[in-house]
Design goal:
heterodimer, A: 199 residues, mainly alpha, 71% helix, globular, B: mainly alpha
Chain lengths: 199, 95
């Protein structure tokens, strides 16, 4: 059962641009309504795709992590405890899964041949310049940041979230969110300055 | 009693600028940032730089068709839908 809500209500804030009410969808999901889950899935897929890709920078894991995240919602919708907005809950699950996936990848990277690896990281600016030549400035710049910092940037500027909400998603104090953003900005500035010097 | 210095205020505004740009600050904080931007050149420069960054981050993307394919794949893994009830359903209905 999929309902579209067209009226405005201060108690139902979680609607997308098409007027889909996430609370109604989640209620139907609790009832086992697969159509509601499909609507919820398609509502969140683009948001999670961007968020996970930006945070992990690993395209090969994005699809799997989106499915894992949303499957958890289907299987255990009762885990939503009303302490936050539904979107905060969903992004929080995706964020934890993304970090876990990155941690596994890092472990695998430890097994790589170190000499082979050093050849690729000896001159980071060469890689950056290559990326810039490919008109990929943003990706090259974001690669300079940690996953935590990228998540904060993405949640702020693309998803338009308040720092209080981001703190809930990444499960850290509000001041830590502000600090991560501040350091991320400084790194991006340094990156831009290094590029300017090199060109 | 803590002393609020100009430097502290500047630092606090620096930390709030990203959320001034995405317009999620509370009214009082928003006013505070606006006042500070009137006379702080450093913050004004950073504000403009951040706006440019925000524009780059918000690149258009069309992932709807990808969502269709993705859900179809997941659907194959799911068992047949069943009716279920829980306390959460009741809570949600009461919103």
């Amino acid at each position: 059962m999929l309902k579209r809500v067209t009226h405005q209500s201060s108690t139902m804030p979680a609607k997308d641009g098409n007027g889909i009410d996430e609370y109604i969808l989640l209620g139907a999901i609790v009832d086992g309504d697969i159509q509601a889950f499909e609507a919820f899935y398609k509502l969140y897929y683009p948001r999670l795709f961007r968020f996970i890709l930006r945070t992990t920078r690993q395209p090969e894991v994005v699809e799997e992590l989106i499915q894992e995240t949303l499957l958890l919602i289907w299987q255990q919708p009762q885990r939503f405890n009303f302490d936050s907005k539904i979107s905060t809950w969903v992004f929080g699950i995706a964020y934890r899964k993304a970090l876990k996936s990155m941690s596994k990848s890092a472990k695998r990277a430890d097994d790589l041949d170190l000499d082979e690896l050093s050849e690729t990281i000896d001159d980071p600016l060469a890689d950056l310049a290559q990326n810039v030549e490919n008109q990929n400035w943003l990706n090259a710049a974001l690669a300079q940041l940690s996953a935590d910092q990228r998540a904060v940037i993405e949640l702020t500027f693309f998803h338009g979230l308040a720092y209080q909400e981001i703190a809930q998603i990444v499960d850290c104090p509000e001041n830590t969110v502000k600090t991560r953003m501040f350091h991320a900005r400084k790194k991006l500035q340094a990156f831009a300055a290094a590029l300017e010097q090199k060109s | 009693m803590s002393t609020i210095t100009v430097s502290n205020v500047h630092q606090e505004i620096q930390h709030l600028l990203p959320w001034y740009i995405n317009q999620t600050l509370e009214f009082q904080q928003q006013q505070q940032v606006e006042q500070h931007l009137k006379h702080c050149l450093v913050c004004r420069r950073d504000w403009l730089e951040l706006q440019k960054l925000a524009e780059k981050i918000v690149a258009p993307s069309d992932l709807d068709s990808a969502a269709d394919v993705s859900f179809a794949q997941l659907r194959l893994q799911l068992p047949e839908p069943r009716t279920r009830q829980s306390v959460v359903r009741i809570k949600l209905a009461g919103r």
